[in-house]
């Protein structure tokens, strides 16, 4: 078995006759871990093709995406600019410190300006201020992000035959990419990490239509495991993450993968997957968030 594939002997899965595995995408590329490397792969090639030497993107103060773009810039010799949601005062934290160490120039947008980040007029102003740059959207999700994620489905299939892949959903890009890489009767499950995540279905369908020319029906979106909303948590979630690490030696994060595995195990316990199914949950990384988490809330 691949070193990136791990059996999860969970009583709930055994009781329901479900084989549960974890794909450690957080270990595949240690310097640029998880789904961010896959989303960036073809965007970086396109940036080079267009002759760009600078990447510009958006994110919150604790963004995995900002950290990944900064690391990618360092690794590939590209300048990086991060436009950060919020005021500069009090914003600096371990995530942004890592971005700065990796060479990212950080600039701050108040929330009113940040909400305009997709408007053509606003983007034209940004280009005037910072110069020509290859624009990456918040979270790194665009049509070019999908082919890199689709390759993950093939990599897992080479190791194990599965019935379903499960992944956390923030912008929906990773789930959309997986859909374009599935074959035959394989299905995908997205566990929304944010409140009222039903709108993600529209976004996912738009992404697959742009990237693959079609809308997929072989996926589900679980919206009941957000624990209050994006980056929100509860004592129950943090206890689950601690217990999961004790059982399996794997650290999840409180924003995405903790909610993913909590949701997958709850769905298994409630008979969501038929007996005999093989379900692979994807660990997409995000452990860098713990440094900022401890700074805000104390030790986990």
What can you tell me about this protein's structure?
By secondary structure, the protein is an alpha/beta fold. The chain has 2 domains: 181 residues, Rossmann fold, CATH 3.40.50; 106 residues, Rossmann fold (3-Layer(aba) Sandwich). Helix content is 43%, strand content 18%. It is built from 12 helices and 10 strands. The strands form 2 sheets. Strands 1-2-10-7-8-9 form a 6-stranded mixed beta sheet. A 4-stranded parallel beta sheet has the order 5-4-3-6. Strand 3, helix 3 and strand 4 form a beta-alpha-beta unit. Helix 3 runs parallel beside helix 4, helix 7 crosses helix 8 and helix 8 packs across helix 9. The two termini are 32 Å apart. The model has no long low-confidence stretch (mean pLDDT 92).
How would you summarize the topology of this molecule?
Elements lengths: L4 E3 L3 H6 L2 E6 L10 H15 L4 E6 L4 H13 L2 E7 L8 H8 L2 E6 L1 H4 L5 H11 L3 E3 L8 H15 L4 E6 L3 H9 L5 E6 L7 H13 L6 E4 L12 H14 L8 H13 L8 E6 L5 H9 L3
Parallel strand pairs: 2-10, 3-4, 3-6, 4-5, 7-8, 7-10, 8-9
Antiparallel strand pairs: 1-2
Helix pairs in contact: 2-7, 3-4, 7-8, 8-9
Number of helices: 12
Count of the domains: 2
Task: Name the helicity range.
Answer: 40-55%
Q: Under the CATH scheme, which architecture of the largest domain would be assigned? A: 3-Layer(aba) Sandwich
Apparent shape: globular
- List the uncertain runs: none
Radius of gyration: 19 Å
* CATH fold descriptor of the largest domain: Rossmann fold
User: How much is the average pLDDT?
Assistant: 92
Main beta sheet: 6 strands, mixed
Strand content: 15-25%
How far apart are the termini? 32 Å
């Amino acid at each position: 078995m691949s070193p990136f594939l791990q059996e999860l002997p969970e009583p709930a899965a055994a009781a329901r006759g479900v084989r549960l595995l974890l794909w450690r995408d957080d270990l595949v590329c240690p310097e640029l871990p998880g789904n961010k490397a896959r989303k960036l792969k073809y965007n970086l090639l396109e940036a080079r093709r267009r002759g760009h030497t600078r990447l510009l993107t958006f994110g919150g103060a604790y963004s995995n995406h900002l950290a990944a773009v900064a690391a990618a810039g360092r690794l590939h010799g590209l300048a990086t600019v991060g436009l950060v949601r919020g005021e500069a005062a009090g914003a600096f934290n371990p995530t942004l410190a890592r971005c700065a160490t990796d060479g990212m120039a950080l600039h701050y947008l108040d929330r009113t300006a940040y909400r305009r980040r997709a408007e053509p007029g606003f983007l034209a102003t940004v280009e005037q201020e910072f110069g020509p740059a290859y624009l990456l959207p918040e979270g790194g999700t665009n049509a070019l992000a999908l082919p890199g994620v689709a390759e993950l489905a093939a990599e897992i299939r080479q190791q194990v035959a599965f019935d379903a892949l499960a992944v956390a959903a923030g912008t929906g890009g990773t789930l959309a990419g997986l859909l374009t890489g599935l074959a035959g009767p394989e299905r995908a499950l997205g566990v929304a990490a944010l409140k009222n995540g039903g709108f993600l279905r529209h976004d996912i369908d738009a992404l697959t239509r742009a990237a693959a020319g079609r809308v997929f029906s072989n996926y589900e979106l679980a919206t009941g495991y957000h624990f209050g909303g994006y980056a929100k948590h509860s004592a129950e979630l943090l206890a689950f993450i601690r217990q999961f690490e004790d059982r399996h030696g794997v650290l999840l994060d409180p924003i995405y993968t903790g909610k993913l595995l909590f949701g997958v195990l709850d769905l298994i316990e409630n008979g969501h997957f038929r007996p005999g199914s093989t379900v692979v949950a994807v660990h997409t990384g995000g452990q860098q968030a713990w440094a900022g988490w401890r700074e805000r809330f104390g030790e986990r």
